Amino acid sequence: xxxxxxxxxxxxxxxxxxTPEDIIVVCSYCGYPNAYDKVFTEExxxxxxxLPKSEILRRFRERIAxxxxxxxxxxxxEVVRIEGFYVPLWAGVVKGRGNMRYLIYEKRGNSxxxxxKFKKFEMESLVCVPARxxxxxxxxEELALRLERYGYLSFEKxxxxxxxxxxxxxxxxxxxxxxxxxxxxxxxxxxxxxxAKMALxxxxxxxxxxxxxxxDVELKFFKFEGDxxxxxxxxxxxxxxxxxxxxxxxxxxxxxxxxREVLAVEPVRLWRKVHYALVxxxxxxxxxxSLAVYGNSSYWEALANAGKGATALFLLPAVGAYLxxxxxxxxxxxxxxxxxxxx
Length: 343
Ligand SMILES: [Zn+2]
Prior knowledge:
Helices cover about 35% and strands about 35% of the residues. It is α+β, with helices and mostly antiparallel strands. The protein folds into two domains: about 25-265, no CATH class; about 270-340. α7 runs antiparallel to α9 (about 310-335). The protein is flat, with a radius of gyration of 28 Å. It binds zinc ion. Zinc ion (ZN) binds near residues 9, 14, 29, 30 and 32.
C-alpha cells in the first residue's frame, strides 16, 4: 500500500507542494518556513537574526547625508521601497587536494626559456553558494562571497565554524509566534542536498584556482578533487533600499546581520563624468605626444647615437602611445555609463 502523505503548513494549514529533495518549504500562502526533513533540519539549518528595518533605513539616510556623490541631489532622493529577505545559502566545508602544471619564463642573458612547474596542494575551506539558481541576484552572489573562509578551519563541526563567522541560530528555534514578528520574507531554496554538494565542490574548485595558481603564469593543467565534509542551509538576512532620483530607480543592498553595505547600484553623477572625461582627454594627449616623437628628426639622431639603449628608446614612445590610448578608451567607456556598481 502506498501512503500519500499530504503535508500541511504548520502555521496556516494550507497544503504544501513538497518534493523529496526539499528540506524547508516556504508556504506559498502565508510564507512560513516549514521544516520537512526533520533530521537534517535539527542540526544543519540555521537562520541569522536581522537588524530592524528602521536601522537599515537610518544607515541609508546616513549614507545619503555623508556621501559627496549625492551632493546637490539629496532632497530629490525618494525612498520608494524597502525589502527584507531571508536568502537561502548553502554553506559547506570542502576538504580536497589539487595539482597543477604551469609554465614560467626564465631569462638567461639575451634568451628566454620556458620552464615547466608542478605544484600540489591541500585545501580546506568554507564555501557558500546561493540556494536559488533560477533567480540571479548580484547582491546575493556578493553576500555568499563575503561569508566564505579559506585556509585551514579551526573547528570540526560546520555549526561551530558558522557560529564563528556569523551568529547562527537553529531554524527549529523559530516558532510560528517568533516568525510572525519578523520583518523579513523567507525565500524558498531551489535545490536540495545532493545538488548543493556538487555546486559547493565546483565553487571550492574555483576558489582553489583563484587562490593557489601563481599570478602571471601560463596554466597548462589544473585539477581539484575533494569532498563536502559537512553542509548546512543558512537563511541570511538581506535588505534592499530602492530609491528614485532624477528619473531612475537605484538600490543599496545591506547585510541584515552586520548592517554593512553589500552592493550599491547608483547613478553616475555629472562631476564624476567630467572627471572620467578629463582622464580620457589626458590619455589622448599622452598618446598624441608619444607618437609625435617619431616625427621629430632630433629623436632619430639621438636613436642613432644611443648604442645599447636604442631598442628601449625606440619602443618607449610606442608604449606611451599604447598606454595613452588604453587610458582614453577605458575612461571613455565610463563616461558613457549611467549606472555605477559599487561593491
Ligand atoms: Zn502557511
